[in-house]
Amino acid sequence: MKFSLIVTTQGRPKEFNRLMKSLAEQSYKVLQLVVVDQSDNDRIEELAALYSSRFEVSYLRAQKCSLSHARNIGLRLASGIVIAFPDDDCWYARDTLLEVKGRFENGMEGCPALDGVSVRTLDWNGGPSCVRWFNKRCFVNYLNVWNTTISVGIFLSANLIRKTGPFDESIGVGSGGKIRSGEETDFVLRSLNVGAKILYDPKIFVHHEDNFSGASVSPKKGFVYGYGMGYVMRKNDYPFRFLGRFLVRSLGGSVLNLFKFRIRKSAIYISIATGRLMGFCQGK
Fold this sequence. Notes:
Blueprint (H helix, E strand, L loop, with lengths): L2 E7 L3 H12 L6 E7 L5 H9 L4 E6 L5 H11 L4 E3 L6 E2 L3 H11 L9 E7 L15 E2 L14 E4 H7 L18 H11 L4 E10 L11 H17 L4 H20 L3 H20 L2
């Protein structure tokens, strides 16, 4: 089983090197790394060449473009039967690919043939990051997709990707509009529409620092994430009552933090709720 890992990057050699090092240390090494480099210098190309003796590397320099467009470019170069989309600032545990391979080969009781495997993200200290993850293994569906998938943790069969089609280039970072998140969730939902069987297994993980905590989070960032989520919900025919659950959670978080005099955090929750509502109204 050959993995093709598609990574897009813009001038982050330190983070990219950490990812490359983790791939070189994988216990299962049948892999291809597809690098779509949008940097202004040669640092990424030099690192790609350095590691090309350790595993297969397909390198392409591209003009600056959206994340979804860059991934679609990378898909054209992918030759593996399982495809993943690591960020340049994530890194794999030593047995990540081996364990994902095992899930594909062994399936799950009642479903021996899988189209995909989804794993969770953990931060440097081993704590859950990025998503409010489910703790139990299950199949990804329309209700739980928000708690069982993230782009760096989805491993999909090449056959499923052909059925699903390319990433929607109007969604995601760099798309040029307000919809600057949610592209991977949209992709997974579209794959479910064509009958995908994707197993979520929280015992397997990819490392990624929590990008929605700490000083880097702002009301503006909360709005962007919320807008993408609302837009993707409406695009994929979710009813308003489903969105309502998330609005109540965000507004409740805002009130709770207000009572604790955490004004900035309260504002972030308000921005998330506003983004979700506006994105949902903009969908379709």
